[in-house]
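Troubleshooting: if your tokenizer reports a length mismatch, compare against these two reference records.
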Amino acid sequence: MAAACVDRPVEQGGGPIEGIARDDIFVLVMHVDRASYEASEPISAGAALTYVGPAPAIDARGSGSGPILFSIEQLDGPLDMGITATGDCATHPFVRDVAQTRQFVKSAAFDPEDPADAFWPAYLADPLLRLPPGDWRLTASIELAIGDCGDPWHRLEAAAEVMVQP
């Protein structure tokens, strides 16, 4: 496994929030347009992944769900949806210093019979990212191998926190 350095999220003049994680091969940036939203407002979030290694281009391997995966966690409440992704070994080509971007993609695995999971069907039915009031952490993650899926993994997480007002 590759070691990673994680920088704290930075708010830039009341505007965008960014969380940055890096290792010797990749830089992952999670961004959210602003730190505060109303409960009915869609949240604009996404991530950028840049290969910064020595070769001009590489093929990385990981989930076919994409090289960048997302999760959300309610910091002041019970809602927490980790990453859901396919377990295949897809190829993701990278060119040095060229960022690959992805808007926040919802995913969830839940038990429809569990009352604690009642939030997730409505969350997934809305094509936009809207969250109930609270403090939230949105995280972009990668788990990629350079070469084959059995090779050492590069694992990074970059997060940004937002507050959703009632």
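Reference record two:
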Amino acid sequence: MELASIVAELARGLHAADELRPVATSQRGTRVYQPGIGPHAENAAIALALATFTAQAAIGPWGQFVPYPGFPRQKCDLWVGQPNEWVIEIKMARLRGDNGKPDDTAIKDILSPYESDRSALADCTKLANAQFTCRKAVIIYGFDYSDRLLDPMIDAFELLAARRVQLSQREVDAFGPLVHPVHSAGRVFGWEVTARAAWSQ
């Protein structure tokens, strides 16, 4: 199976989950957000997406969380195939909050160079060095806004990640329209990740 199919299937699942109008709450349960997939935390959103098509997925079985070889407490976000054909780290890029106000933590979640921030950029290095025997990828899904499209951040991610690892060509698929008035359209981006050749380090 190819990464393009995984990206397309995940986009379809996020859209299908959104159509169910799921309602997210804050971590402390003190705030209820507007319906839609957009306000959900990353792991919850992926779980909702997987629940819509696990039995019918065109690419075979997949699920959340697989331990890193030698580091059982560290979990990769997604596995595909049994035995695993892919392991995938996923990050969400949500540049606005439920109320529409800018939320720049998304930039840190994607582009931070520091391992402790667990960004998509840091995940590239972690995956490239991991001893998985299957193929490895990073997926970023997020939401576009009229004044804050995802493209500049995705371009920056590719530029920075290419200094650390070998990225495949970008795979992308859109999902929407969505029910949330702010998070009303989204895209899923994916890249296969491999270690750079020693001569290019």
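Descriptive notes for reference record two:
- Residues 3-200 form one domain.
- The chain has one domain: 3-200.
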